Amino acid sequence: MQKAPEAKTGDYVLVIHGGAGTILKKNMTPEKEAAYRSALETSLKKGYDVLQAGGSSLDAVEAAIHVLEDNPLFNAGKGAVFTHDGRNELDASIMDGGTLAAGAVAGVRVIKNPISLARAVMEKSEHVMMAGRGAEEFAAQAGVEIVDTAYFRTQERWDGLQKALAEDSAKAKLDHSFIPSHKLGIQNIDNKFGTVGCVALDKKGNLAAGTSTGGMTNKKFGRIGDSPVIGAGTYANNSTVAVSCTGWGEFYIRNVVAHDLSAMMEYKGLSVEDAGKAVIKKVGDLGGDGGLIALDKNGNIAMPFNTEGMYRGTVTKEGKIEVLIYKN
């Protein structure tokens, strides 16, 4: 697999991602790149402002992800891709590194910001994961904002579904094109990017992580990926690290990637950089693609991925923001 690990040491307090995939500068218009960079920067500022004001890492994660969920550029919330049946089904999860409390939702259709419903599951119920109509009923009781399904319909995502249907692929096409075209026997697949995530470290030393997604274009049978699965797509533990993943979800579930990274740090004493490289290698060795963001308890970060690019950004405790898109 292609290698593109990134790790930095220092006083980082918040990291975000907007999905990984075949993201090449030659295929990006200046206007589109500027729009992605602006959205990522806005998300970073929103999360940072929460932390600077003394807010919790959970508050910062939720705020940063709201920005990305509300932006149709990303496959989460407003920009969710369509299933085979022409619907939008959203998944999300969040975890508190201080208490190991966690919440997740899967297959919801009318929740404006799934990350907020995931947090409500964590804080207002005895459960960790809720799905489908039951999760939506709980959302109404918990006061989480509900919208009509038409809110999620965007022309670009609808056109993406029509193209996928026309190609009559035997497999559902991932929003980040994590099934390489040669594996499908299809050429020139139009790549879709978007799963979003955030990890944060607050002034009290508490870590948190969250992930939100619209899943796969043309997915069938109520398929659920890694994003709402605690330990696979999301994990946070104050003693080690906070992690949010993006990629071919089945491989992240099978490798329990987010928890595996934490375990490598706890049991083997690896740095966040080395643990990040190791778990992405495991994904690649099995045939999966993607990346992750990780922030340890000391403010060190890693952003490894094995694709051509990953939308990502960081902010230090001094407020220095950096936004990156391409592999190099």
Would you write up a description of this structure?
InterPro entries: Ntn_hydrolases_N (IPR029055), Peptidase_T2 (IPR000246). This is Isoaspartyl peptidase/L-asparaginase. It comes from Chitinophaga chungangae. The protein is of the alpha+beta class and 328 residues long. It has one domain (7-326): (Glycosyl)asparaginase (Glutamine Phosphoribosylpyrophosphate, subunit 1, domain 1, 4-Layer Sandwich), CATH 3.60.20.30. Helix content is 33%, strand content 23%. It has helices at 30-52, 57-69, 114-124, 132-142, 155-167, 181-184, 249-255, 257-268, 272-285, and strands spanning 7-8, 12-21, 90-96, 102-108, 129-131, 196-201, 207-213, 234-236, 241-247, 290-296, 301-302, 309-316, 321-326. Strands 5-4-3-7-6-2-12-13 form an 8-stranded mixed sheet. Strand 4 (102-108), helix 3 (114-124) and strand 5 (129-131) form a beta-alpha-beta unit.
What structural keywords apply?
328 residues; alpha+beta; Glutamine Phosphoribosylpyrophosphate, subunit 1, domain 1; eight-stranded mixed beta sheet; five-stranded antiparallel beta sheet; 13 strands; disordered N terminus; Isoaspartyl peptidase/L-asparaginase
